[in-house]
TrEMBL record:
Residues 11-26 have a biased composition (Basic and acidic residues). The lineage of its organism: Eukaryota, Sar, Stramenopiles, Ochrophyta, Bacillariophyta. Residues 1-10 have a biased composition (Basic residues). The keyword Acetylation does not apply. This is LNR domain-containing protein. It comes from Chaetoceros tenuissimus. Residues 1-26 are annotated as: Disordered.
C-alpha cells in the first residue's frame, strides 16, 4: 500500500506483526537515539506517531497502559496512553508509578499520592462524610477505637468528625475529669480506650478518673470487703463466674470472689460457719485442687 509521508511516497507493509511495524534504522544503532514508530489509532493503521528520541520498547507505547517512565513529551506521553491521567491530574507528576496506583482501592499514603495534586490518591484516601479529613489510614475512622494519639491527633479532629465519633466519649470524659492523666507509659495509646468500656482494667481506678469512668465501681465494692486483694493484674476477672487460678484464687481475694468455691463450700460460708476448722478445710481443699 502506497502512502505519502513528508512529501515522499513510501510503501507501507500490511502486517499484523508489531515487530514488523515498529522499526528503526540499523544505521541509527549506537549513534543516535532509537527512533520509534507507534500506532496511535488501532482502528486506522495509517495513523502513526513518530518519536525519534524515545528509547522505550516499541510495544510499550500506545498499548492502553500508562507507563510512568515514558510519560513525557519525548515519548508522546507513552504514545497517548497517559493523556487521560495527565488531563485529570496535571500536577501529579512527581510520584513514581502514580497512574497505576491511583484509584486502585488502597490509600497509597506512603507513596506520596495522598495529596491534593493527586486527588487524594484518586479518592482512595478520602473518608466518606468527611471531605476535609486527610489521614494516612482512612479505615481507622469510625472503627470503634479512639485513635487519639495517631498522627499527632489528626483523627480526633473536627475535620475527621472526632475519629468518626469514636473519640466523642473520651473528649466529653476528659472535659469532665481534666486531671485524669495517661501517666503509665506502658499503656500509652490504649488505656484511655479502656475507660467506660464496662471492664475494670485498674489502670485508672482513681478518683481523678472517676474510678475508670465507673467501670471499677463494682470491683471497689468488692475491694472494701477484701482490702488485701490488690495484686491481681485484671480486676474485671474477679467474680465473673469463672474460676481464675493463681493470684485470684486466694483467701485475700475471697477465692476469686467465690468463683472457685464448690456449692457446698459456698453453703458453709453462707451459713456463717466460718470457724477456724472450716476455714482450714477450705484452704487445704483448694490448695490440693490447684496442684
Amino acid at each position: 500500500m502506497l502512502k505519502k509521508r513528508h512529501g515522499r511516497v513510501t510503501k507501507q507493509r500490511e502486517s499484523n506483526n508489531y515487530e514488523d511495524l515498529f522499526s528503526h534504522s540499523k544505521q541509527d544503532v549506537g549513534t543516535r537515539p532509537r527512533r520509534v514508530l507507534v500506532m496511535i489509532n488501532e482502528k486506522d493503521s495509517t495513523e502513526w506517531g513518530y518519536y525519534p528520541n524515545c528509547t522505550a520498547p516499541p510495544t510499550a507505547l500506545g498499548n492502553s497502559h500508562c507507563d510512568w517512565e515514558y510519560n513525557d513529551e519525548t515519548c508522546g506521553y507513552d504514545g497517548g496512553d497517559c493523556d487521560e491521567f495527565n488531563a485529570k491530574y496535571p500536577k501529579c507528576k512527581e510520584v513514581d508509578n502514580a497512574p497505576n496506583n491511583i484509584g486502585n482501592g488502597y490509600c497509597n499514603h506512603d507513596d506520596g499520592l495522598n495529596i491534593e495534586e493527586c486527588g487524594w490518591d484518586g479518592g482512595d484516601c478520602l473518608v466518606d462524610g468527611y471531605p476535609d479529613c486527610h489521614v494516612q489510614f482512612p479505615h481507622f475512622i469510625e472503627n470503634g477505637v479512639c485513635d487519639y494519639l495517631v498522627e499527632e491527633g489528626s483523627y480526633n479532629s473536627k475535620e475527621c468528625g472526632f475519629d468518626g465519633g469514636d473519640c466523642l466519649f473520651l473528649n466529653e470524659f476528659l472535659m469532665e475529669y481534666p486531671n485524669c492523666y495517661e501517666d503509665r507509659i506502658e499503656n500509652v495509646g490504649k488505656t484511655y480506650n479502656n475507660i467506660g468500656d464496662g471492664k475494670c482494667d485498674g489502670f485508672y481506678n482513681t478518683k481523678e478518673c472517676n474510678w475508670e469512668g465507673g467501670d471499677c465501681d463494682e470491683f471497689n465494692l468488692f475491694l472494701s470487703k477484701h482490702p488485701n486483694c490488690t495484686h491481681i493484674p485484671k480486676p474485671y476477672l474477679i467474680g465473673n463466674n469463672i474460676c481464675n487460678s493463681g493470684d485470684y484464687n486466694t483467701p485475700e481475694c475471697g477465692w476469686d470472689d467465690g468463683d472457685c468455691l464448690s456449692p457446698a463450700e459456698k453453703a458453709y460460708i453462707g451459713a456463717g460457719v466460718a470457724s477456724a476448722v472450716v476455714f482450714f478445710i477450705l484452704v487445704i481443699s483448694l490448695h490440693c485442687r490447684n496442684q
